[in-house]
Amino acid sequence: MAKITAQQVKDLRDQTSVGMMDAKKALVASDGDISKAIDYLREKGIAKAEKKSSNVAANGLAQIAIHDNVAAIVEVNSETDFVATNDTFKDLANKIADTIALNNPADLDAALKLKTDKGTIDDAIVETTQVMSEKVSLRRFQVVEKSDKDVFGSYLHNGGQIGALVILEGADQEVAKNVAMHVAAVNPEFVSRDDIPKQRLDHEREVLKKEALNEGKPEKIVEKMVDGRLRKFLSEISLADQEFVMDSDQTVSQYVSSKGGSLKSFVRFEVGEGIEKKEQNFEDEVNSQING
């Protein structure tokens, strides 16, 4: 049996909000595998769904640039939010987004070599790092293209902490922007349920079935319950099936369709997502200050 650490228990509690003993029991039952422990808790009805970790540390800005039928969304990072609000940093993010949209580089290394009035994007980043006296970096980007009959919608939330870029077929820019605002707020995973991998659906169905059986429901009605809960699950992760934030009486797909359009794609960048915070034990921090 794997040794269960206090950090594993904490991580599982952070993701599921269950009690300490439930978290430890789930980890023991799953031999320390956090993903399996989450499934165990859900099957037992203790945790209904995995919470997305908000344990992020990076500061910076997301920025979007659109040039004709090509658009780019980028994330530029800084060490502090103070630097991220500086005009010099904002100008850099704008310059990077524009240059990438106009040149469509193959990857991050190619993007850093693109020419600017500062030499290259990398040169501009180095200069901003020197001016700001803290590390500045281009973390990621994505370039998307549309046809003449498509329309872009873009939205930057909270000054660029979240960026959303949407493509609709038909409709107009106002409709597309409204969908981009929805994407920024609700954070869907897929455009439609057709885009969800079969393995993901099969796994979710199995978890929901075990959950229903563990609730003591008769097996003859379990399948209907699972179908209903699976539809709810799909409506939570599929953009097309989500309740539209500006009108909960219709789904996003219904809203776009009512305006003569259809959903094609979306990209959503949230600054710092997926970057773990550097945590320090309080006792260690005090000792380091005493002994420093």
UniProtKB/TrEMBL annotation:
<dbReference type="InterPro" id="IPR009060">
    <property type="entry name" value="UBA-like_sf"/>
</dbReference>
<dbReference type="InterPro" id="IPR036402">
    <property type="entry name" value="EF-Ts_dimer_sf"/>
</dbReference>
<protein>
    <recommendedName>
        <fullName>Elongation factor Ts</fullName>
    </recommendedName>
</protein>
<dbReference type="InterPro" id="IPR014039">
    <property type="entry name" value="Transl_elong_EFTs/EF1B_dimer"/>
</dbReference>
<dbReference type="Pfam" id="PF00889">
    <property type="entry name" value="EF_TS"/>
</dbReference>
<comment type="similarity">
    <text>Belongs to the EF-Ts family.</text>
</comment>
<comment type="function">
    <text>Associates with the EF-Tu.GDP complex and induces the exchange of GDP to GTP. It remains bound to the aminoacyl-tRNA.EF-Tu.GTP complex up to the GTP hydrolysis stage on the ribosome.</text>
</comment>
<feature type="domain" description="Translation elongation factor EFTs/EF1B dimerisation">
    <location>
        <begin position="71"/>
        <end position="273"/>
    </location>
</feature>
<feature type="region of interest" description="Involved in Mg(2+) ion dislocation from EF-Tu">
    <location>
        <begin position="80"/>
        <end position="83"/>
    </location>
</feature>
<dbReference type="GO" id="GO:0005737">
    <property type="term" value="C:cytoplasm"/>
</dbReference>
<keyword id="KW-0251">Elongation factor</keyword>
<dbReference type="InterPro" id="IPR001816">
    <property type="entry name" value="Transl_elong_EFTs/EF1B"/>
</dbReference>
<keyword id="KW-0648">Protein biosynthesis</keyword>
<dbReference type="GO" id="GO:0003746">
    <property type="term" value="F:translation elongation factor activity"/>
</dbReference>
<keyword id="KW-0963">Cytoplasm</keyword>
<dbReference type="InterPro" id="IPR018101">
    <property type="entry name" value="Transl_elong_Ts_CS"/>
</dbReference>
